[in-house]
Amino acid sequence: MSHRKVSDVMTATVRIVYQGTPVRRIAEQLDFAGISAMPVLNDEADVVGVVSESDLLHKLTYQDEPDEWPRLLRRHRTDRAKAEGLVARDLMTTPAITIDADASVVQAAQLMEKRNVKRLPVVNDTGKLLGVVSRSDLVRLFVRSDTAIRDEVETEVLGRVLLHPAEVTAEVTDGVVTLSGTLRRRSDVGIAVEFARRIDGVVKVVDALAYVDDDTSYRALREQVSYPSGPFL
């Protein structure tokens, strides 16, 4: 059971700028597309950085502030340098925080959270740009229909993992999955709940499952050790 890949949810049509793109052109692109950041490419089409609205705002922040203090004493000397920049190369944040197209959506969310960014350039194994994945792309997973989620639970969890137990059903309401019925072993209950939880779009899993044999009890484990199954060597 695996989550969807970044390539499944990313936006493939991406606005880009090059290292030599002037500030005004960058601002026009961001404003026209209604986005907060864009990848910056070099002449070989490698992603070398990201330029954002906040990078442009440095020009306004320091516009009327005299540069009177030595650079070593200036708290925001990096921001000051960006404020004086004229092209993307001067403004961009580098190296770019990118993610592989084969990474899972969970890995993308974790990276965004860790690095406090709203969007990630998606690259292949040679660093070439394939698309962009944003927070909104990931949030969209939670608006999957209940029917789509139920179908995936039935196919992937009940079908492939539990091998179609006739006594188990899955119901989904507003992303909440309820598993009902009876399984042969208690350990299968935990497996069913855990794998259902991994389905993209699932908000919560309600465990309403029963079991026949408790194969997790001390007695059951002791019997397994005392009477191992399979041929004796």
From TrEMBL:
InterPro entries with a match to the protein in the record: BON_dom, CBS_dom, CBS_dom_sf, Diverse_CBS-Domain, UCP036990_CBS_BON
Gene3D superfamilies (alphabetical): 3.30.1340.30, CBS-domain
Pfam families, sorted: BON, CBS
Keywords, comma-separated and alphabetical: CBS domain
Protein name per UniProt: CBS domain-containing protein
Keyword S-adenosyl-L-methionine: no
CBS domain boundaries: 10-68, 92-152
Domain BON stretches: 145-213
Highest taxon of source: Bacteria
